[in-house]
Amino acid sequence: MLLVAGIIAGRNSAQRFVFFLFCFAIWDIFYYVFLYLLIGWPASLLDWDILFLLPVPWIGPVLAPCLLSLMMIMLIILVVWLRRISEG
Fold first, then answer.
1. What CA–CA distance (Å, rounded) separates 14 from 64?
2. Structural domain that includes position 30
3. Which of 1, 46, 8, 56 is closest to 24 using CA atoms?
4. Which of 31, 49, 69, 74 has the most CB atoms around it within 10 Å of its CB?
5. What confidence score (pLDDT) does residue 72 get?
């Protein structure tokens, strides 16, 4: 679903990838927002979460993927803004 959103939104492969990353970052943040609204977890951004399971479990605070997602969003906004400036 996220990949299709990127394909529809972009004009070329670079734009499609950037829009896919934007959708992924938004999804990742709202994943934790809706977990909190539905089950009350995480109680704080410092609660531990399983980030990956393969090849071994990676655990870290909820803050880590949220910060990475925010950084991706800021980078994508910067790339799109700079692209518009260069196009005139």
1. 26
2. 2-87
3. 1
4. 69
5. 95
Distance CA 66, CA 21 (A): 14
User: Per-residue pLDDT for 77 more than 80?
Assistant: yes
18, exposed or middle or buried, with CB in 10 Å at 0-12, 13-18, 19+? buried
User: How many domains does the chain contain in total?
Assistant: 1
Mean pLDDT over 58-72 rounds to: 95
DSSP state letters, 23-78: HHHHHHHHHHHHHHHHH---SSTTSEEEEE-SSS-EEEETHHHHHHHHHHHHHHHH
Other C-beta atoms within 10 Å of 32: how many? 19
Of all residues in the chain, what percent carry a pLDDT higher than 70?
A: 100
Helix (H) or strand (E) holding 12: none
